[in-house]
Amino acid sequence: MQLLIKNGRIITATDDYYGDIIVSAGQVTAIGRKLSVPSAKVIDAEGLLVMPGGIDPHVHLDMPFMGTFSSDTHETGTRAALHGGTTTVIDFVLQQQGHSLREALDEWNERAYGTAVGDYSFHMAVTDFNANTKAEIRTMIEQEGITSFKTFMAYKGALMIDDRQMTGLMQEVKQHGGMVTVHATNGDVIDYLVAKHLAEGKTTPLYHYLSQPEVTEAEAAARFTDLANYTGCPGYIVHLTCEGALNAVRNATRRNQKVFVETCIQYLLLDASKYDKGFESAKWVMSPPLREAKDQETLWAGINQNLVNIVATDHCPFMWQQKLMGEHDFSKIPNGHPAIENRMELLFSEGVNKNRISLNKFVEVACTNPAKIFGMFPRKGTIAIGSDADIILFDPNEKHTIAAATHHMNVDYSAYEGWEVTGKVKTVLLRGEIAIDKGECLVPRGYGQFIKRNKVNGKI
Ligand code: DUC
Ligand code: ZN
Ligand code: ZN
Ligand code: ZN
């Protein structure tokens, strides 16, 4: 079926104009003024913003972690994402130490294939880099379309790799046209502080925060950036939260090195005062933890300085019952918070409406840069002839309130309960199908497609 979207204000990362869009066979086939197609279904976008579908490149769906699983499956998580205007997500495949990348990928394919509602891709988290895994990197990039490799500088014994493995991985990934991404915090220092606090009987969520001070992130960000520079490997820091870490990246620009930076919506909007609420603070126990007001300012400024390239979520929800696993020991609280559904509307409301970022910048960091940096552009991340018709119709003035009672994520609380938002996703197209309209999801389980990604070169 052909669609004709009429009279919308079309926003991309670079443009802002009024026009009509024709969608045929899942793609945008024409953009112009006063278009007409006699047989097409017409969608009236008068008064609405017409923007590319959001891309959240950092989500953990159905992930085994800290003795449990994150509570959104590929089905519920991608459906909630669609409700919030995010049409594509990149989820993490987690290698188990002592096992192959292939085994991990098979496991994740089984979970996501035929269940995801929205489009998805995978990063490969390399937790054990050795001669066997080295030989798998090329296959992942060239055959599987998985071109980004996630590393952890923390979570020793489960996920962390050391600097020897990091250097080897970077050399291998660079050679085949991929990128290394990193959870950049110093795991040894954090482990020391966690053990010290617990030994002193300090077991509340506040000590989760106090065990991951800014220096643990700034040090790791600088070390990762230096190793990426030495090896020449494209590098990307996930969920960067603070001034110290951003300064490491800023310093690297002086030698003309580009390291991509992602922050997450929570680090822009929430701060460490959330850790003063007794055990309720477990809702915001995530790693890295929330920071201070000065870090929020640094991150908003960093977006406008082109140092922060992407706003993601690190969506990793756990039910309250799961959070209670750490009731007597903060180090056992499953790390993570739900946001996959809220990212676009919150970023619009707090960013565009409060004049911290422009409309074009909003599209750039929420849609276009994720596609460009991770090898999906121009199929995804923009509105252009030949692109997938992943399009959202957005009312910039409609007010609503975030609440667990009305969200679609499979989690029994909201990290943003009661937050007043201005701006609402009204209609969502995914590959030319109306996926969301009037608050209903109209595409079935299994509609989501796996998106193979292209090689990357570390430039945008
Ligand atoms: N941090 C989280 O909060 N959750 C998932 C993994 C991570 O690094
Ligand atoms: Zn095995
Ligand atoms: Zn992380
Ligand atoms: Zn994560």
Automatic annotation (TrEMBL):
Domain of life: Bacteria
Modification type N6-carboxylysine: residues: K150
Domain Amidohydrolase-related residues, every copy: 49-434
E.C. number: 3.5.2.2
Single GO MF annotation: dihydropyrimidinase activity
PTM per Swiss-Prot/TrEMBL: Carbamylation allows a single lysine to coordinate two divalent metal cations.
GO cellular component annotations of the record: cytosol
The name this protein goes by in its record: Dihydropyrimidinase
Organism placement in taxonomy: Bacteria, Pseudomonadati, Bacteroidota, Chitinophagia, Chitinophagales
This protein's encoding gene: hydA
